[in-house]
Design brief:
With 285 residues, the protein is of the alpha/beta class. The protein has two domains: 65 residues; 195 residues, Rossmann fold (3-Layer(aba) Sandwich). Helix content is 38%, strand content 20%. It is built from eleven helices and nine strands. The strands form two sheets. It has a seven-stranded mixed sheet with strand order 5-4-3-6-7-9-8, sandwiched between helices. The protein has a two-stranded antiparallel ribbon with strand order 1-2. Helix 8 links the parallel strand 4 and strand 5. Helix 1 packs across helix 2, helix 6 runs parallel beside helix 7 and helix 7 packs parallel to helix 8. The longest helix has 15 residues. The radius of gyration is 21 Å and the shape is elongated. The N and C termini lie far apart (71 Å).
Length: 285
């Protein structure tokens, strides 16, 4: 069988199932299960599939994908900030938009920074930061024991010897933070979907991401208020608070930050031009 024919068959089936960006999923499935890349097909449009190709494995993956199981769950991993993270239904799948937050944090850190990650989920933010920073220390909290188990696995896999610089605590936001600890930076991608909007989410999100990590209350701002109002007890004066937000929440989150002694509050857009991150500095006055 020609690889190009298989590629066409996969794409048609994905499109028929209503898969967003079926082309990208097709390329990933081809690479993963048929061991054929886009460049391979460009180089040889008549490329024949290798004898080692297992149609059964691909078919099992396809059956799950057309049922709208996320491709990342099928593969068991995803790439975030250049690192391979294990994923599971225990936590949100790390997404490229969240890399905007991580990149912002990397711009202003200094060696030895102490960083707190609230609602850590898979641990993708704090683990990536510690992997890319020098001699920094992290604390990560989450209310979900299963999410923390996943994050701990990712820390072991990605950080190696640096994993001892990261501690995980189970609990609700700041309640899990060791008493008396202060940080130069707090980061978070909290739940921010309005409760009324939960039913309208894509099946990949609604049916496979944990609702606990999505539902931000009636106005989507419940966790922002709690995080921002409590930040003064855990953030050093002059420290940074960096939050991922929904596309229409920048104004509200900005106002909450300004009302709680944060200065130089600004919004950062993602590559699609949508507001994605709000950050501010805790005033020392």
């Amino acid at each position: 069988m020609k690889a190009s024919d298989l590629k066409k068959d996969i794409k048609v089936r994905l499109e028929a199932a209503g898969i967003p960006d079926a082309e990208t999923d097709t390329r990933i499935l081809m690479k993963e299960y048929a061991h054929v890349s886009v460049s391979d097909l460009y180089a040889d449009p008549d490329l024949e599939l290798a004898d080692s190709f297992s149609r059964d494995d691909l078919e099992k993956a396809m059956e799950l994908r057309v049922k709208r199981v996320p491709l990342q769950h099928i593969l068991g991993r995803t790439c975030f900030m250049g690192f391979d993270f294990t994923v599971s239904p225990a936590a949100l799948i790390p997404r490229p938009d969240t890399e905007i937050l991580a990149e912002e944090a990397l711009m202003d850190y200094h060696d030895g920074s102490r960083i707190l990650d609230l609602c850590t989920g898979s641990g993708c933010i704090i683990i990536s930061l510690l992997a890319l920073m020098n001699d920094c220390y992290g604390v990560a909290t989450d209310i979900s024991k299963d999410a923390l188990s996943l994050a701990e696995k990712n820390a072991s896999d990605i950080l190696g010897e640096k994993k001892d610089r990261l501690r995980f605590f189970e609990g609700d936001l700041y309640s899990a933070v060791p008493e008396g600890e202060k940080f130069e930076m707090i980061v978070s991608n909290p739940p921010y979907i309005r409760t009324a909007d939960m039913k309208g989410l894509m099946p990949e999100v609604k049916d496979h991401d944990p609702a606990l990590a999505l539902d931000g209350g009636e106005d989507g701002l419940v966790f922002y208020r709690r995080i921002i109002e409590g930040a003064g007890d855990h953030l050093c004066p002059g420290g940074d608070l960096i939050l991922e937000i929904g596309y229409d929440q920048a104004g509200d989150v900005t106002e909450i930050m300004k009302a709680n002694k944060f200065i130089e509050v600004r919004t950062i857009k993602d590559f699609g031009g949508c507001d994605r991150v709000v950050r501010g500095i805790l005033s020392s006055l």
